[in-house]
Amino acid sequence: MAMTLRQLQYLVAIVETGSFTRAADRLHVSQPALSRQLQILERSCGGPLIERNVRPITPTPLGRAILPHARAALAEIDRANSAALRVVGVHGGELRLTTLHSISLGVLPAVLGVWRRQHSGVRLSLTEKLYDSELQLTMAAGQADVAIGPPPMDWPGVLFPLDAEEFVVVLAADDPLDWPDGSRLPLSELAAREWVHFTEPNGLSKILDHACADAGFQPLIAVRTQQTAAALQLALAGVGPTLLPANMIPANPAARVYLLDPPIRRPLAAYTRGRPDALTAAFIDVLTHHARPLPAHVAALAGVPGKRAAGQASGGAERAAD
User: Fold this and answer.
1) Prior bond to 56 cis, omega within 30?
2) Is residue 16 within 8 Å of 55, Cβ to Cβ?
3) Any idea what DSSP says for residue 306?
C-alpha cells in the first residue's frame, strides 16, 4: 500500500508536537483518525515510526529516516500552491527573496514596508548572503524567486537594473577630523586612521580595501567584524571610521557622515531565472519605485542637492564599487 501526503503530514505533526492530542488539534482532525492513518503508514513502511511509550513522542530510527523526505514532500506541495497563486494574481502565496546582508539593512526595509502595505496576504521569505556569487548559486538552485544585488555577468535569466547605491564614511559625532561637514571627503584624509573593517566573508571587505587602494593607502585595522550592522555601531561609538552604503544610515544619527570624492557607488539589479510571473513582477515594480540608494536625510547631512537624494546615480566622476 502506497503512503499518502496526508499520512506524511500526520507523521510530521505528531513528531513536531510530541503528542497525538496536540497533532490532532493542529490538523483539525480527530485523534482516532490520526492514529489510524499513522498505523496504515507504519504498515506501508514495515515497522513503527514513533516510540509511543515516551513523552514527548519521539521517532524511531525508521521514523527518523523517513522524516526528512516527508518534510521535503510537504514543502514541495507548499511551493506548488504558492506558484499557482502567483500565476493567477498577487493576493496570496509566497515570494522568496535573496540578497546581501548590507542590502537587507539598507535598500530593502523601506521597500518591504511598502510591499506589505500593498500585499499583506503574500508571505515573504528573505535569505541573506555575504558574497555576490552566493546569490547566483541560490537562484540557480531554485531556492529563491528574486535576487537583489550587484548585477551578475552573463546571467542567463532576466535582469532589472536599479539605481546604484552610494557609499559614505561614518565617524563618531565627536571625531576630531578637521574637514567641513557637508563637503565630499577624499578618502586619503583618513589614510592614517585605524578602521572598523570587515572580515573576509563579508563582501564589504573588498569594497573598503579597493577604495583605500585607489586612494593610495592600505587601511590600518582597529577591529574587524563580519556583521555589517555592528560596523555602524562601532563607528558611532568612536572605534574608528567605516565605509557603508548610505541607505544604512539612520535618520538623525549621532555621527559625522561624508560622501566621498571621488564617489564610490555600487550598481544594483534585481534578477530572476525567467520571465517574472504576476507576483514577482509586482514586487520588482515596488522595488524599482521605492528603493532609495541615497536617502534624503543622508544627502542633507552630506550637503547634496535634493535631486541626488532621489536616488539618481548619474553625473560626475565616479568609481563603481566591486
Assistant:
1) yes
2) no
3) H
Partners of 223 in the β-ladder:
196
Q: Cell numbers of 66, please?
A: 523517513
Q: Which three cell numbers stand for residue 299?
A: 544627502
Predicted pLDDT at 312: 40
Tens-place pLDDT, residues 244-293: 999 888 877 788 999 999 999 999 999 998 888 888 888 999 999 888 77
Verdict on whether the full-model pTM lies above 0.85: no
DSSP H helices, the chain, are 5-17, 20-27, 31-45, 61-88, 101-105, 108-118, 132-140, 204-214, 228-236, 278-290, 296-301, 306-309
User: 144-163: b or e for each residue (b if 16 or more CB lie within 10 Å)?
Assistant: bbbbbbbbbeebeeeebebb
Number of alpha carbons in the 13 Å side-chain half-sphere of residue 133: 3
Res 151: pLDDT: 93
Residue in the structure block whose three cell numbers are 577604495: 211
Cβ within 8 Å of residue 217, ≥6 positions away = 188, 191
> Cell 586612494, residue?
215
pLDDT band at 119 (very low <50, low <70, confident <90, very high): confident
